[in-house]
Amino acid sequence: DDRERATILEDAAAAAQAAGRSEIAERHWRHLIELRTVLGDRAGAARATARLASLLLVIQRYDAALEEVEAALDDLGGEDPDDTAAVELAGQLARAHLLRGDLPKAVAYADRALGIATRLGLIPVATDALITRGTARVLIGEQAAGIEDLNEAISQCTAHDLPGLELRARNNMAWALVADDP
């Protein structure tokens, strides 16, 4: 049935993304968003949109990612602000603003996502937001605070077996330190 199809489609999208097959992953994420919408699962559609946005950010389609996330947040308009999908979207919105160079917005959305995700026990979402905030802080000139955030994110990644996020955190840390310590 459609609910089983949605579960399988989500697994296929994640697998394609992990394999670097971005065109296939994007197609699957978009199909999943449509299917979740037809099923009346607004939160599921929003979560799929957050994952689509993550893919779009990786392949450097920043404006498209920003548009997807903002539209999904508008769709959730009247939903509970502590909804897990809204928190995940806020984290991806922070990343989109970071990658587009709007650092104050990146920090603000990362702070929002980090606070709520931490309270709700969404460790991967909180850690992702911490990486984004740390990177934005470094770019703003708050080097020590940014490095502290990135170190905390690396510790959380190690503690909770989040290798993909750990790689991102370590890469951002290396980038932040290379000028002082090549």
Q: What can you tell me about this protein's structure?
A:
The chain has 182 residues and is mainly alpha-helical. Helix content is 82%, strand content 0%. It contains nine helices and no strands. It has helices at 2-18, 22-38, 42-58, 62-75, 84-100, 103-120, 123-140, 143-159, 163-177. The longest helix has 18 residues, at 103-120. The mean pLDDT is 91.
Give the strand tally.
0
Shape: globular
Question: Which whole number gives the mean pLDDT?
Answer: 91
State the secondary-structure class. mainly alpha
- In terms of DSSP E residues, the strand content is under 5%
Radius of gyration: 16 Å
Give the SSE order as H and E letters.
HHHHHHHHH
Helix percent band: over 70%
Termini separation (Å)? 55 Å
Number of helical elements: 9
Unreliable stretches: none
Tell me about the largest β-sheet. Answer: none
Offer a concise description of the structure:
With 182 residues, the chain is an all-alpha fold. It has helices at residues 2-18, 22-38, 42-58, 62-75, 84-100, 103-120, 123-140, 143-159, 163-177.
